[in-house]
């Protein structure tokens, strides 16, 4: 009997030999992507969005790697994420995008964090706390220029200059968010820039921020004082109509737990949605939708058909999924891989090489963002680089 090595991966979670999947994360590529984005941002400061556990790569690893590269400002979605980021970046500026939850102002102050205020109610609560503390604590103001999710309306933003509250806290940033920056010719981009510029012009002393990952690459990009890339940092393509300028950061490998032959006219997986027209060899991987791999990548049809479904790279060959992705397992048709090149215990690539996060998302009918942020806790995580 083989005894498991007690040494785990660098996060101390799961030994690689005990994991159904191994997620390889290249922190040097993450840092290089930040530098690429910085170089495209001109004179603007380049921040980093590290919400959703740094897009699945791990806040505790990604934030120090980005800090070492020169990043000084970070954005998260939730207060709990901000506290984690603060623990590994004691000198950084950290903003919380999802607004000021009622009663959380003391926690922001305790950890030196900055809420992004998107309503008059939030502004009034923050101002009340600042007055009670006799401190001008810093925060950002979010103006909605077209997303219709969070933020003051443009009309409300234009009244800010006449409201007395702005004098009672530190107005550190005025920001908005693009709706369709990845579509470089979308007229919404120009409309949003115009709307944001109107508010910004009324508050010229507050630093401004609009571009996200794709916004940094717009032909007529408004850099302002700060840009906020997220997806591109982790290898996603910010310019979908052009080649990806970013380096891949994650590679996901799934372990083969069994190989078997399926006879002609037999089906594979739940509900019998995939039919073998002739004898096929099937590899079963110890990864499933409980690990965050999308069930929508299931292959439903017949062997040999060109299906828009999940793929794996097995011994360097592209192999289609066979049947439904289940909770803990994925079945892959490896008939065309020579038998001597694939065996039980091997790992195959589910993200990596030609299977970029964008391609995996496309094959599952979703986007690469969802693929990254769903990367599950059951993977062993193996980190490369990121040292000082």
Walk me through the structure.
This protein has 388 residues and is α/β, with parallel strands linked by helices. The chain has 2 domains: 208 residues, Alpha-Beta Barrel (TIM Barrel); 135 residues, Lyase, Ornithine Decarboxylase, Chain A, domain 1, CATH 2.40.37.10. The protein has 10 helices and 20 strands. The protein has a 7-stranded parallel sheet. Strand 8, helix 8 and strand 9 form a beta-alpha-beta unit. It is elongated and about 75 Å long.
List the helices and strands and how they pair.
Layout: E1 21-26, H1 27-40, E2 45-46, E3 48-49, H2 51-55, H3 59-69, E4 73-76, H4 79-88, E5 93-96, H5 105-111, E6 114-117, H6 120-133, E7 138-142, H7 154-158, E8 170-175, H8 187-202, E9 208-209, E10 226-227, E11 250-262, E12 267-268, E13 274-275, E14 280-285, E15 301-302, E16 311-314, E17 317-320, E18 330-333, E19 347-351, H9 357-363, H10 368-373, E20 380-384
Parallel strand pairs: 1-20, 2-10, 3-4, 4-5, 5-6, 6-7, 7-8, 8-9, 13-15
Antiparallel strand pairs: 1-11, 11-14, 11-19, 12-13, 14-18, 16-17
Helix pairs in contact: 1-3, 3-4
List key phrases describing it.
about 400 residues; alpha/beta; TIM Barrel; Lyase, Ornithine Decarboxylase, Chain A, domain 1; seven-stranded parallel sheet; six-stranded mixed sheet; 10 helices; 20 strands; about 20% strand; elongated; disordered N terminus
Please give the radius of gyration in angstroms: 24 Å
Assigned CATH superfamily of the largest domain: Alanine racemase
Would you list the SSEs in sequence order as H and E?
EHEEHHEHEHEHEHEHEEEEEEEEEEEHHE
| β-strand number | 20
The major β-sheet equals:
7 strands, parallel
* Helical amount: 10-25%
How confident overall, as mean pLDDT? 94
Q: Determine the number of helices (DSSP H or I, runs of at least 4 residues).
A: 10
What's the CATH architecture name of the largest domain?
Alpha-Beta Barrel
CATH top level of the largest domain is: Alpha Beta
Give the uncertain stretches in residue-range form: 1-12
CATH topology (level 3) name of the largest domain: TIM Barrel
Gap between N and C termini:
40 Å
Strand content: 15-25%
The gross shape turns out to be elongated
* Order of the strands making up the biggest sheet: 3-4-5-6-7-8-9
Q: What structural category do the secondary elements indicate? A: alpha/beta
- Return the domain count: 2
């Amino acid at each position: 009997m083989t005894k498991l090595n007690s040494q785990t991966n660098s996060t101390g979670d799961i030994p690689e030999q005990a994991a159904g999947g191994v997620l390889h994360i290249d922190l040097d590529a993450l840092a290089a992507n930040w530098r690429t984005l910085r170089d495209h941002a001109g004179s603007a400061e380049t921040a980093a969005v590290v919400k959703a556990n740094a897009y699945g790569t791990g806040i505790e690893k990604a934030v120090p790697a980005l800090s070492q590269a020169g990043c000084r400002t970070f954005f998260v979605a939730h207060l709990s994420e901000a506290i984690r980021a603060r623990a590994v970046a004691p000198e950084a500026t950290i903003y919380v995008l999802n607004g000021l939850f009622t009663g959380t102002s003391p926690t922001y102050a305790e950890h030196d964090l900055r809420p992004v205020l998107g309503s008059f109610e939030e502004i009034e609560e923050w101002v009340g706390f600042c007055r009670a503390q006799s401190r001008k604590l810093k925060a950002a103001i979010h103006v909605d220029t077209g997303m219709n999710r969070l933020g003051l309306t443009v009309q409300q933003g234009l009244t800010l200059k006449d409201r007395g509250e702005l004098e009672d806290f530190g107005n550190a940033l005025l920001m908005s968010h693009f709706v369709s920056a990845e579509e470089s010719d979308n007229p919404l981009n120009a409309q949003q820039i115009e709307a944001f510029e109107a508010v910004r012009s009324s508050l010229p002393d507050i630093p401004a921020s609009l571009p996200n990952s794709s916004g940094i690459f717009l032909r007529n990009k408004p850099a302002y004082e700060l840009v906020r890339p997220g997806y591109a940092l982790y290898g996603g393509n910010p310019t979908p109509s052009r080649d990806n300028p970013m380096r891949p950061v994650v590679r996901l490998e799934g372990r083969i737990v069994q190989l078997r032959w399926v006879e002609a006219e037999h089906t594979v997986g739940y509900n019998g949605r995939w039919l073998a027209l002739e004898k096929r060899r099937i590899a079963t991987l110890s990864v499933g939708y409980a690990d965050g791999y999308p069930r929508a990548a299931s292959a439903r049809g017949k062997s040999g058909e060109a299906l828009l479904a999940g793929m794996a790279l097995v011994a360097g060959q592209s192999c289609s999924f066979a049947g439904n992705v289940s909770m803990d397992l994925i079945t892959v048709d490896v008939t065309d891989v020579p038998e001597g090149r694939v065996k039980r215990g091997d790992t195959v690539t589910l993200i990596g090489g030609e299977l970029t996060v964008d391609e995996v998302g496309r094959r599952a009918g979703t986007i690469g963002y969802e693929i990254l942020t769903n990367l599950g806790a059951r993977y062993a995580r193996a980190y490369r680089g990121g040292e000082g």
